[in-house]
Design a protein that fits this description.
The structure holds two protein chains of two kinds.
Chain A: H1 10-24, H2 26-47, H3 53-67, H4 73-87, H5 91-121, H6 123-138, H7 141-152, H8 156-180, H9 184-192, H10 197-226, H11 228-232, H12 239-248, H13 252-281
Helix pairs in contact in A: 2-5, 3-4, 4-13, 5-6, 5-8, 5-10, 5-12, 6-8, 7-8, 8-10, 9-10, 10-13, 12-13
Chain B: E1 2-13, H1 17-25, H2 30-37, E2 40-51, E3 55-60, H3 66-73, E4 81-86, E5 89-90, H4 96-105, E6 107-110, H5 122-126, H6 128-131, H7 137-150, H8 166-179, E7 184-188, H9 196-213, E8 216-221, H10 224-230, E9 233-238, E10 241-246, H11 248-253, H12 258-265, H13 269-272, H14 275-278, E11 284-286, H15 292-302, E12 306-310, E13 316-321, H16 322-330, E14 346-347, H17 353-361, E15 367-371, E16 374-379, H18 381-389
Helix pairs in contact in B: 7-8, 15-16, 17-18
Classes of the chains: A mainly alpha, B alpha/beta.
Bound molecules: adenosine-5'-diphosphate and magnesium ion.
Amino acid sequence: MLDNIPTLPVAEIVDTITDWIEETFSFIFDPIKDDFGPFLDDLSGDYLAAIPPWIVILIVAVLAFFVSGKKFGLAIFSIIGLWFIQNQGQWEQLMYTFVLVIAASIIAIIIGVPIGILMSKSKTLQSILTPILDFMQTMPAFVYLIPTVAFFSIGMPPGVFAALIFATPPTIRLTNLGIRQVPNELIEASEAFGSTPMQKLIKVELPMAKKTIMAGINQTVMLTLSMVVIASMIGAPGLGREVMRALQRADVGSGFVAGIGIVILAIIIDRFTQYLNKQKGE
Amino acid sequence: MPIIKVENLSKIFGRKPQEAIGLLEEGYSKEDILEKTGNTVGVNRATFDVEEGEVFVIMGLSGSGKSTLVRLLNRLIEPTEGSVLIDDQDLATMDKEGLRKVRREKMSMVFQNFGLFPYRTVLENTVYGLEIQGMDKEKSKEKAIQALELVGLGGYIEQYPSQLSGGMQQRVGLARALANDPEVLLMDEAFSALDPLIRKGMQDELLDLQERMQKTIIFITHDLDEALRIGDRIALMKDGSIVQIGTPEEILVNPANDYVEKFVEDVDRSKVLTAENIMKRPETVSIEKHGPRVALERMREEGLSSIYVTDKQRNLKGYVTADDASDARKNDVKDLSQILKNDVPTVNLDTSMTEIFDIIQDTAVPVAVVEDGKLRGVIVRGAVIAALAGSEVNIDVG
Ligand SMILES: Nc1ncnc2c1ncn2[C@@H]1O[C@H](COP(=O)(O)OP(=O)(O)O)[C@@H](O)[C@H]1O
Ligand SMILES: [Mg+2]
């Protein structure tokens, strides 16, 4: 009996919608494809990769020393870790991955913090956005890789875009949470003295929520990193691509080396953002 | 002239405020309304005036609506009904811009848990109210430092709130409120989080400041002792309604109903009651009209061993004892002035109970209550003891 019902044309509908989006918003997608992609490629491949690795390692080590409050731990780890990556011939790949992660993180923050602020001001918006954010984080990445390629073709831009979908929610969520957690008395104090809503936001809510927001940003950066392997499936260059290539050839050794490279980058970025958060909070 | 006029001001928390207002007008209680509509009555049709320069205390048990009421005065909470007139402007219907202006220029608030910004120094906290008005940096800093010096914190401007004790933090709260030079200070349980000793010090300091600066202060507390100490007038709240407004003495001596009476029961009366409250009408004889015979007669009638002597204008002249009067009659002395004694223990109308208690220990005659040399009443030892014990106080004044 069920056989009598014709197959619902869901796939066709999605295709149509995708086509429509692609054509309608091509004025957005095209510049991203044509300008933003090459820009990221040049930045990683031509500029960063052109700096001698030892200079980069030295700069990172010095920054690590000061950021961690003049302790040697992170600096030493950075030197050894980065040297190892260079030694394994993965330096250029590292630059691509780094640029992908930083680009995606910055865009995620630029989009996420304002949305989080708006969300904290409106119960309605919060109840609309919460399931959408859940959806963004739980939907398998492979599903949106395909339309992403349709919009941005292959390379860095779709990689950044895929990372954004997965990695922006924590920044939004924790910005929202951080502002909602500001003690009521402080909100009242700022209002009682006649603050405008903007003054209240900038002088009270954001400073009070800073730690929570920074924790969200830290999560966002880490999630971006976790997307680099998947992003390499749609042509994003970098360490992820090495992992993917090793996977295709069952080359355990190279896969391990590239994987270790990602872990080292993750640890360094994680410690950096955490230390920055601590310092600013004092 | 009242600086704040509150009329018929109500706040209902919940979804159906208008329905609840209707029920209030029909006389339903807060409890009934919660049951019937699910709405909470925060403040129930409060009406009162606050005079310029007055310390107006709002007192009541926890949940009686004090915080809600004080937040209606600067509209941190939107009123459901009624009006709040400040210098004849209605706050309840004012637009946002006008409201901000009033908050910036006319009133400041001090909070129970201080409400200080932890990431700002003492100075940065104090300057907040001026900063958001866009005042020039140097000028606002100067004003903030003045305010901090006023509360004795001139040396702590670079510290963070977490480095200060509770009492000092609340001084910062007070300085921040004073820096704007507002007309009205709203203080919601400002001293309730402090321990008792520091609290008393802060009360004294507030009174001191008030005397110097002549601010109007609306002070919320759940503590009757505190209310009596600092209030010029006290409004007592119960279930969102104001049940009595009066001076500390009126509240103590004439509680409007059982609720107030209960509240007032355990107060330390010796601190608040004065001579005026416990004196009674004096029995006197006149120095011009009467002689020893009349004096003796009066004393016998009233069962006294001495009696005060006044002139026609009720100016106190002294007293005569029964013994002297009886001797004088035997010796045919006609004039009271010959046996008049002058060592009269006198107090003023507003002498406190504690002082009267000390004086009355050392004297055999009743204490005379004198105003401008005129005898207004007498206090017998029994009345002092009865008042200290908290029983009925005799207030019929002659
Ligand atoms: N935001 C709110 N929402 C609902 N009910 C409230 C709210 N604020 C206060 N109330 C209720 O209003 C009444 C008065 O509270 P409040 O003014 O805080 O009393 P007080 O300060 O005297 O302790 C209480 O019954 C309280 O539960
Ligand atoms: Mg309260």
